[in-house]
């Protein structure tokens, strides 16, 4: 049986995937079973950047679906691995040239420094006043439902629209992103109906939307935050759960100054609302 490997690393873009062929399946099974206790005891991370790796059996008409591990497997037979560096490094290597060099280096840095993937809360944060009457409440349960979580990304979350299409800026309005830079993504978002903003302190009356922010992992990926009605900000990194914490495990008073990991370029604040079309 062959396996699909998904590197859980992006927020806006679809995650990198590749196939481990039948000829290497035995080695995969041996390594997974040897690490089964560590896999079962691991916990997913919700930081920006590399979080873990999923391996899923590929179904065939003439082969019954099998579970990789009984103790740690999911309903579709897949296994999510986070916090088992040696096994994760092996699975990364099976991607060969299919994994961008910048992404591969980033993953290896995270594997070598576990504290980057599992931050602890350092200090209390005072949330600013929310000036937008329409700002959504922070309700991670809605977004983290299994029917929604894998199919909606940071752009869905910022715009408060669960399209289940892993929405991309500009796709709904015929102006897709032209590059993984601020200048390559922002015009596509404006095409969808978002408007640039100098900050997030100006009052927005009912019907005038709420504040979001765009940041970039230069040349690799984009990410969006939104301000909730409590004043602090939250986000949903890719297929992973929505969270109101940054990469240091702290509440987010301002996405410009919070710990964003590799998403080092702050692009702009923007205003979104129920008039925006995304897909």
What do you see in this structure?
- The structure is a single chain.
- This protein is of the alpha+beta class.
- Helices cover 22% and strands 17% of the residues.
- The protein folds into two domains: 3-117, no CATH class; 140-272.
- The protein has helices spanning 25-34, 36-41, 85-93, 101-112, 114-117, 140-143, 154-159, 182-192, and strands at residues 3-8, 17-20, 52-57, 79-81, 195-197, 210-217, 221-227, 233-234, 265-272.
- The strands form two sheets. Strands 5-9-6-7-8 form a five-stranded antiparallel sheet. A four-stranded antiparallel sheet has the order 2-1-3-4, with helices on one face.
- Strand 7 (221-227) and strand 8 form a beta hairpin.
- The longest helix is centred in the middle third of the chain and has 12 residues, at 101-112.
- The two termini are 34 Å apart.
- The mean pLDDT is 93.
Radius of gyration: 19 Å
Helix/strand order: EEHHEEHHHHHHEEEEE
* Major pleated sheet: 5 strands, antiparallel
**Overall mean pLDDT score?**
93
Low-confidence runs of at least 5 consecutive residues: none
Name the beta content range: 15-25%
Helicity range: 10-25%
Terminal residue distance = 34 Å
The total strand number stands at 9
Structural class: alpha+beta
Shape: globular
Spatial sequence of strands, sheet with the most strands: 5-9-6-7-8
What is the helix tally? Answer: 8
Total domains, how many? Answer: 2
